[in-house]
Amino acid sequence: MRILAVDTSSKNCSVAIVEVDKNKNFNVLVEKNNDDEKTHSQKLMPIIDEALREQSLSLDDINLLACCLGPGSFTGIRIGIATVKAFADAKNIPTVGVTSLESLAYNVVQNSIIFPIIDCKNDNVYSALFLSNDNTYSQIGNNIAENINTVLNDFSDLCEDAEISTITFVGDGSILYHGLIEKKFADYKIIFSDNNTQSSVSLAKCAYEKYLNGLYGDSNYISPLYLRKSQAERAKDGEK
Hints:
Largest sheet: 5 strands, mixed
Number of helices: 8
CATH topology of the largest domain: Nucleotidyltransferase, domain 5
Number of domains: 2
Order of helices and strands: EEEHEHEHEEEHEHHEHH
Number of strands: 10
């Protein structure tokens, strides 16, 4: 199986083509990342084309399409999903949607409680909790968008109930709020990941696991996950 994975939910535009054999061995054929100042609408299609050309492949050789649903950049999310939907409809390729928080969790390989945090400005973050145990990932609770202090306070109670004692923080929010996290979780064994960029390879790994569990469908299967209002909507309502 060949998977084309696309993540446009952050500043980094990430595209990967991976191949999974019948023994479930995961081989990254090509990975492309671009975090320059160009918009995703300018760079996504050229990156996909370059990745396919490098491997002498076309969309006819792709068996599964994976894209990031968000949360993250509202415009970026829409561009990625629209592109994947177009490919799926044109070539009748099944799709899998992966959240940016799930994808970040797959950046962490050790057994751990995983605490991805994505900054969304004004001391607000997107976050969720995951449990990684022997390369099996499961989510604890819901995806949320809240003030960083609220997130850390609420999730600390969930961490107490988990059997694994180590907590790994990952994502740009874990860098931004490093000191606050250390203070709030002083009684825990914590690790700060050095792999904090959202990756299409991690997205593809999560997508493959979802595919094996039957969590895939046609282009209608994927839709954006925003979690909060757009900046324009917040400004209109007088919110930060």
